[in-house]
Amino acid sequence: MTLYAYRSSRLPSGCFVLALAVLTGFASSTAIAQQTDPIIAKVNGVAIRQSTLALADADIGKNFPTEDPDKKRDFLINYLTDMILITGAVKGTNAADDPSIQRRVAFVKDKLLMDRVIDNVNKTAVTEAAVRDAYEETAHLLEAEDEFHVKTILLRNPENADDQAKAEVLAKILTAAERVRKGEEFSAVAQELSQDPIGHARGGDLGFLNKQQMSPKFFDAVSKLADGQISEPFETEAGWAIATVVEKRKRHVPPLEQVKDQVENYVRGKAQFALVEKLRAQAKIERLDKPEEAKP
Question: What is the CATH number of domain 144-250?
Answer without folding.
Answer: 3.10.50.40
